[in-house]
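[Automated response] Your request has been received and processed.

Submitted sequence:
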Amino acid sequence: MIRQTRYENKKVLVLGLALSGFHAAKLLLKLGAFVTVNDAKELENNPDAQELVASGIRVIAGYHPVELLDESFAYIIKNPGIPYSNPMLERATELAIPILTEVELAAEVMEADLIGVTGTNGKTTTTTMIHELLDYKRPAGKAYKAGNIGIPAAAIAQEATKDDDIVMELSSFQLMGIDEMHPSIAVITNITEAHIDYHGTRDAYVEAKWRITENQTENDYLILNWDQEELRELSKNTKAKIVPFSRKEEIKNGAYLKDDMIYFNEASVMPISDIHVPGLHNIENALAAIAVAKLKGIENDIIHEALSQFGGVKHRIQFVKEINGRSFYNDSKSTNIVATKTALESFPNNEIILLAGGLDRGNSFDELIPYLDKVKAMILFGETKEKLQETAEKAAIKIIKLTENVETAVAESYRISEKEDVILLSPACASWDQYKNFEVRGDLYIHAVQELKAD
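Generated structure:
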């Protein structure tokens, strides 16, 4: 860890605890700051806050007192989810107090090489793919993943050494709070429209994403989706070397798809048939990941071997198992209709048995009808099973079954399936009618699949 003196003997406010705030506070204490943590959750129900108090950090819990800012803080490290319209942050802006996020703090003490990944879609999968490629049969050091993927960057930054790499998923919320963060390789998977409620306008959202490259120099690399005209235009506004990737055209000095093969710098790397996470979007994710791997000097045979074993991010169109010719996929994270559309589009050449249902939010599911043309059967559970049944009938689905839960749905789907079928859990609903979260629902699905017997 680099011994950073920026915060030494300075008063720093950590706004919002959660996992990132907890590790930011502990790191700041180690760096010699006078740390105050403020969180809206009551102290007695917050074991992390209690641990910080025991270590000598002041914690103010239960509310956000704007008058706290009268104490002349030098910096604020804020939770990314807290909007800048929060009265505390509005007052901090008036007082010209720098507002940073935990990833900036982590980058300042990091010895390892930093690869940053952002984009509207595909961030988590691309980050995970890059991590797998950089860590697979690595001769020295280690690759870590951190950031928006759910692993606090401030914790990983202290552990990693100069022989390591840190692959960091970065959200627009996090990137708004950087100052000196400087990835040697930055990746933007794509940019569409998202989080307008937070950023106010699409232009502000795009500007936040583009901050990933603002501190890059001519010695750094920016990997961009060349199939998006917007990113081609934005590429004029960076000092970094551009490394494009494309699913649609051959390009020089980058990664592209041609005749079902992935190429980098006009040399073949691997066939897409050996990428076992389905969907065109995952080919794009693989192109970006391969570009990073090649810039890091990884040989094609290692890339091919590592990506051939990649099963996807858990609960996101995750390949679980093949049983007697049936392929089971866990997409429990699809808690809305849009996500389930994407999942269905990922299997253009298979007959699908769709497992769906969950919390009733009052909406219809008829938006799914144009995407059900490859669905041969629907197994439905949860509060929305009757609504989904109505949609299935409108789509002329031949087999519709109502069942109790995700586990009974697995047994029923296998019973009616045939070889080469895809059995896909993609609920199009939140899980809270029956399960604590989508992870629990997905884990129960995986367990039920593993219990099936191939007879």
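Summary generated for your ticket: The longest helix spans residues 280-295. The chain has a mean pLDDT of 95.
If you did not submit this request, please reply to this message.
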